Amino acid sequence: MEKGNDGSGAPPTGSFLRNDPSYSTRAIRAGFEPEAFSSLPIVPPITLATAFKQQSADQRGKFFYGRLDNPSRSSVQDAVAALEDAKHGVAFGSGTAAFAGVLQLLQAGDHIIACEDLYAGNWTYLHSLGRRQGIDVEFVDTRDVNQIAKSLKKSTRMVFLETPTNPTLKVMDLQEISALIQQHNLKIDENTEETQPQNSEKELVGCISSLSICGTNSNDSPQTLSNKETHNILTGISSDGSPRTVLESQSENILTRTNSDGGKSRADLEETKQILTETYSDGAQPTSLLSKSILDKYPQKIPADFPHTALNKENRRISNNSPCTDLGDKTERIPDGLPTTALSEETKGIQEGFPRTALDKKTKRVLIVVDNTFLSPYFQRPLNFGVDLVMHSCSKYLNGSSDVIMGMVCTNCDVLSEKLKFVQCSAGAIPSPFDCYMLHRSLRTLPLRMERHMATGLVVARYLEGHPCVRKVNHPGLPSHPQHQLSLEQTYGHSGMVSFYLKEDDLEKTKKFIQSFKLILLSSSLGGVESLAEIPLLMTRVSIPPEMNAKVGVTAGLVRLSVGLEDAPDIITDLEQALEAAFLS
Ligand SMILES: Cc1ncc(COP(=O)(O)O)c(C=O)c1O
What we know:
Helix content: 40-55%
Radius of gyration: 27 Å
CATH class of the largest domain: Alpha Beta
Cofactor: pyridoxal 5'-phosphate
Number of strands: 12
GO cellular component, one term: cytoplasm
Bound molecules: pyridoxal-5'-phosphate
GO molecular function: cystathionine gamma-lyase activity; pyridoxal phosphate binding
CATH architecture of the largest domain: 3-Layer(aba) Sandwich
Family: Belongs to the trans-sulfuration enzymes family.
Distance between the termini: 50 Å
Number of helices: 22
Strand content: 5-15%
CATH superfamily of the largest domain: Type I PLP-dependent aspartate aminotransferase-like (Major domain)
Keywords: Amino-acid biosynthesis, Cysteine biosynthesis, Lyase, Pyridoxal phosphate
Strand order of the largest sheet: 1-7-6-5-4-2-3
């Protein structure tokens, strides 16, 4: 990527990466075309409808129930994805819900490496709900790639980064971390090929297809799941790639519904999907797919020549017990060595084209996730460095007006996007159409706002750095920042986030300082048009153990400032008088 001044009229930043000269156009037009509505509105309307009329009972349009999708949400998802250089965006009701959604990609026993000065809410979530979910959490200083390398273990499935971090503005080397994880994933692939005979995946996929079809074929009609549906189930199923058991009772449920009255009772398609999906994504142990009791129950009904080549012995029994008359037909289409029987082209695509997904044989791979809240996609686009998922608290810079709580996850991977959409709809942690509208409106001014945040933030940071009452300033755009050079190489600039240490680590003086502001508001949020200040130790990080705060540099003298869009001289005047009040009066 080329470096240099971005020609936007903002003060020269030296040598941050040069941004896309059409980024503002993208921000204004992405995700919406007036032609999508008969009235041709020039901005996306707010669609409040909770449900949408269907043309017929078995045919539904793109939108049919508001929790599942909605025009306002759909267009803002596309817009944020476009700004992140991503194919997909998945919106959530808050940044925290987006984080929780990402964690749903993991399951009990999975190990996550997270940067140690993660946003306090996410840190606390991992410690409480994450651990309760069975996730093995390890916090390391992810600035040092060797520490990540040392922490990688067999069960590691995710590296979660924030760059720059909140509130100490440490910067992670995305390229270096990506290279490490890529190497690690390559080794996993080799080992997977050695230890897992090709057949095991074939069997897994075959079994699942069979079960899915069994579940839906109740009254002698050969009703199969569509490709898309099968694909959805599979993506829910194989999140760690190991063949897992269908819990005994759940398996019986599936079959009982199918067979309870002599094969005539119907397992509803939705129910079957639900059961299967839940079953396989719940962290059950990797043992046989089928329980002994089921085999015992349906022992003798399979002809030896049952044509399920991709199924193992156990599963033939089950499959044959249900009237899947067209299954053989599908089975014949299995190409040798490709475990995509009865599955769609989409699934083949996943297996061949998306190496970091949880579905193909490389399923033990590690995903890299970046919280990009502090910079917004205008200044940093981590997917271009090999990151798998980017998440945002849209409540901050993306909306930028301190009047929306919302979250978003972006990815280029179809499978991860499908999984996240499943979480979005199933958990129901969705944003309101009004918030989607508000965010979409704000995206249009993102480049302008971010340029101004950067310009004023730098002026303020330089002022603070030269002040005798300030010991140290954290701002990646300052040459004094330990990773200044790295920031220039992986970002297009820096936002209005500055943190700094007052000359004394004295909580009373720090309180006096920030309570003396006349313009800057004392508040724990950030990224809005108004300048906000907080004491992390007392406010946003009060739930973090003191030793962890001390380790990452959160001390009594640390102040975090979110520089807004007011005039720089006014902000500086306010800082000056507050410093005087705290230290010189
Ligand atoms: C870096 C970062 N990530 C995530 C969040 C959580 O976002 P939300 O408040 O929208 O849930 C925050 C909130 O402050 C944050 O600062």
